[in-house]
Fold each of these.
Amino acid sequence: MILVLDFGGQYNQLIARRVRENHVYCEVHTLTDGEVAADKNVKSGLGTAINFSAIKNLKPEGIILTGGPQSVYNTSSSLPPAELFNLGVPVLGICYGAQAMVHVLGGQVKKSDVDEYGKTNLEIIHDSKIFRDVEKKSVVWMSHADRIFELPKDFSVTAQTENCPVAAAENPAKNLYAVQFHPEVLHTVEGKKIFSNFVDICGCKRDWNMDTFVADTVAELKNKIGNGKVLCALSGGVDSSVAAVLLSKAVGKNLTCVFVDHGLLRKNESAEVEAAFKNYDLNFVRIDAAERFLQKLQGVTDPERKRKIIGEEFIRVFEDVAKKIGAVDFLVQGTIYPDVIESGLGKSAVIKSHHNVGGLPDFVDFKEIIEPLRLLFKDEVRQAGRELGLPENIVSRQPFPGPGLGIRIIGEVTADKIKIVQDADAIYREEIFKAGIAPKLSQYFAALTNMRSVGVMGDGRTYDYAVVLRAVLTSDFMTAEAAQIDWAILNLVANRIVNEVKGVNRVLYDCTSKPPATIELE
Ligand code: XMP
């Protein structure tokens, strides 16, 4: 296994992901001087604090020190102990992690004259095992204001950029590698090779797969939950379905899956979900709460308020169900890693409060919330779903947000608007499917703007809503580009929508990428 020590960088889970892509098990922990209970170092990689003696007990085959916002010369900054570099274990320091390695081993890090942010040209000036098969000149992603000025004893420079003479350095005898740039982000063109090389340097076997994640997580959940009662919020989407089946493997009949039909689902979705889960050994309960949600949303136009209301109402519905089934110890949610980042629970800014993370009310009537997929990216969740034997129509289902159509209707949500967006979306999905392009698109849906405009139908004037069609390409949903859908398909969809959906006289296609737009409209 490879241990990632997290110093607070924004994309540190990407580092873990790059390691997992090499079929090597990886855990992300923050470093602490304090005592750490041994059982906290859990197998599914749920990050916890770890101290030096616990690191030694873990016996990692490699250690990666992440980037982070601190400066090594500030006395309050977190630094790895010097002994870490004497364990005989290869260490890769990235950005702040590289500076911390250099600083702790006696080199010098200072504020740079020129900050480097964004794409930068890297030149490898010395052969290195970490750069095996890496192009001598390539583009890397930089994000630093400090830089390495002096290297510790036995270190030498292996790569440079125009403004950063020590862009990479190493002590090859001890397998210590420092890179100022971020190999984990895709902008670093050769980044994946660098991780693959590090995995080889560590001598890892590359035999870890999602089946191991599934087995470890099930075992861990069994251990944690024991005989406790578990309530799972099942939406029918990939994430909560995978979470539900993981939990059912761990606790069987102690699990009750509650599917809340909040009335903001896609056309026919409620019935489809119910049919799909009939085949599983779950206590499946469907709650029809459409009226309740609609009432709460009456007159509300602010997107964040809508998200919070829907999130809160979810919990209230669950509480009601929990009361009926008796004491419930745990609530399971299918939160995945991009939800966690975008809800700003780490150090990043709040973009949206995803209802299954930041939108929870302060008081929740359960002992604990369990989020077994919290550290996985979407494609990893799908892989886990396949391991668990979930059918492909669920596993490859496009993502659907917890707040549902509530955030695909700009402004106030009403029953009429829900019907419009459901019907328009069903037509759009049907035509995309017929055209055979669904597998190429990461997510596609119709949404309803709050714009009404003038049109002409038959011989009469109309003053109706504009539907917006969205389709994006993305691998991680944190950035996305608008898909270039064939005009003939869009034309057909637009025609069908204005003809078949009452209340719509205009159809728009959203060609914005994320950022600056987000995938959903609210
Ligand atoms: P955005 O709109 O933030 O969406 O670019 C990124 C991905 O997340 C989904 N999404 C949500 N999923 N609860 C969820 O479970 C939410 O509150 C939520 N908001 C957005 C969105 O559909 C896209 O796949």
Note: The chain has three domains: 2-202, 210-395, 408-509.
Amino acid sequence: MELEGKRVALGVTGGIAAYKAAELTRLLLGQGAAVRVAMSEAATHFVTPTTFQALSGNPVLTDPWDASAAGGMAHIRFSREADVLLIAPASANFLAKAANGIADDLMSTLTLARDCPLLVAPAMNHRMWNSPATRRNVATLTGDAVGVLGPASGGQACGETGEGRMLEPAQIVEELIAHFQPRRLAGKRVLMTAGPTFEAIDPVRGLTNLSSGRMGLAVARAAREAGAEVTLVCGPVSLPSPRGIARIDVTSALEMRAAVMRHVAGQDVFIGVAAVADYRPRIASDQKIKKTGHPPPVIELVENPDILAEVAALPDPPLCVGFAAETRNLAEYAEKKRRAKKIPLIAGNLIGDGFGGETNTLTLFDDDGRHALEPAPKLALARQLVARIAALLENPHAAR
Ligand code: PMT
């Protein structure tokens, strides 16, 4: 549970997306957060306070003049007892008031009176979102260190299509989890690879491996949570990327190398999580290879370029981090790879622990020796790896 012990004050303003705030409440509770809900008058026309009361297990604040609640100061105390104030959905009207310090109703008053960070998940018609007034208000809020989550593009309740849909509840929860992570890589640029590569034999067959991309996507998410600008070069995987990642999809090792080399300039960190094929067929037939009845064809292989080693050998390389998946002798082989590729840090995992699943067991190897991490979900391990990378960036000779 990623939000254990966190107190979330959830403000729901008027808009059709208000119904999604019910699901959002459920997901927040599922991550261990304590949730208190306040609703604008308009929001109560879309969903009833009873829904949020039943879901959150707490009374719902709807009336700034409710003298019976908290000595008549409920709107002041509401966000004072929270770790974050999240307004979802946030209407254009609410954004305008929040940007200008107006406090003439419940939601704008408790926002102005807050003593905690503010995150907003806008939801409105795309013309309202793109209007000069809303653009100005969003710029003001961003300048005031308010986190603006989304919005997304797509079909809207009014039947039109465009930017202005509220993020899905699960995406908002992901953003909230990110909000509570230390910003260890703020301002840094991270380039990385993930997933397998696929080396074509003919148009329908090829050589590949069982990497699911999960470890790499977890590292991408952890780096982004830590404040980095992340570019992910990803082999063929079926999983979606975390939000806020620039993803370049590739198929073969040669394509992966080309994409990496195109983007490596100006990067602070390069992380090779991909299980890159060491070899590819020398010739990929452009026609499907037919069964002839003769002895089976022999596929001649040639070695692929080592992307990580090439990046590490650049004149002014980023901090290079590798991964090593082994079936045995993990420490010996991982160290050997670290030295051969001349990289400061490598994360070793055993194939049985790491390939495919949701969890992994990592051991980090660097100049200080080895550091075994407890078996854990891949995201938890990725955050520890990011912490180590941040320490190395700070001081390349940092002792753990
Ligand atoms: O995707 P998952 O299912 O979550 O599984 C994750 C994983 C097991 C694939 C991942 O944790 C992992 O260990 N990735 C590296 C796999 C591996 O063994 O790579 P390698 O030993 O072939 O290469 C060592 C390092 O060099 C790696 O950082 C690799 O990305 C890099 N490399 C290798 C060959 C090559 N031609 N170019 C490279 O850049």
Note: Residues 7-179 form a domain with the Rossmann fold fold (CATH 3.40.50.1950).
